[in-house]
Design brief:
60s Ribosomal Protein L30, Chain: A; nine-stranded antiparallel beta sheet; 3 helices
């Protein structure tokens, strides 16, 4: 009898879905003094970066391809330095994202991961800066919509399509996401 109960409990435990995990990490600047510095008058409140689209690249991802790794691979293969992520759609069979979780420096990031939660990819935007992907995703399940910065560990389910607007050399985005440039 005890053997049967233990067997049933093990089967039930194996059938339970994984729970979403969360962990918070402090995101220190490479030089800790940068986190404490005040805004500089020499850095404009807002500035424009002008350029033109050189070409449009649409990427298609197949089942079980890691979304971020696939993006980074194609950015290298297509020799993309700076680009705008114009759109993204599809579905995923798990996710790993992070969101900013505080309001003062040093910034903190909340990493949210569920390796088996299926979701629709209802949007993607962001930038390619100096060949590095900085992608934000919006995901939806039947119960909620949520999003954040795309992290490794987001495998494609049915398919994913991402469209990039590749910028010409006149558009230099290299400081666009530098939190110390303030």
């Amino acid at each position: 009898m005890i053997h049967r109960v233990l067997s049933c409990l093990l089967l039930l435990a194996a059938a339970l879905p994984a729970q979403e995990s969360r962990r918070e990490i402090v995101n220190y600047a490479s030089n800790p003094g940068q986190d404490a510095k005040a805004n500089s008058d020499s850095v404009p409140d807002v500035y424009a970066i002008s350029g033109r689209f050189e070409r449009i690249v649409t990427l298609r991802f197949k089942f079980d391809t890691d979304l971020l790794a696939g993006l980074q691979k194609m950015v290298g293969q297509e020799k993309i330095r700076h680009a705008v992520i114009l759109a993204g759609a599809g579905s995923v069979r798990g996710y790993h994202i992070h969101q900013v979780s505080n309001r003062v420096f040093p910034s903190k990031n909340m990493y949210v991961k569920d390796p088996i939660a299926q979701a629709d990819l209802i949007g993607m935007n962001g930038y390619i800066i100096d060949g590095k992907v900085h992608a934000h995703v919006t995901l939806a399940t039947p119960d909620r919509a949520f999003g954040g910065h795309l992290e490794p560990g987001t495998p494609v389910f049915t398919f994913a399509i991402v469209t990039l607007g590749v910028l010409n050399e006149a558009a230099d985005l290299s400081r666009a996401d530098d939190k110390t440039y303030r």
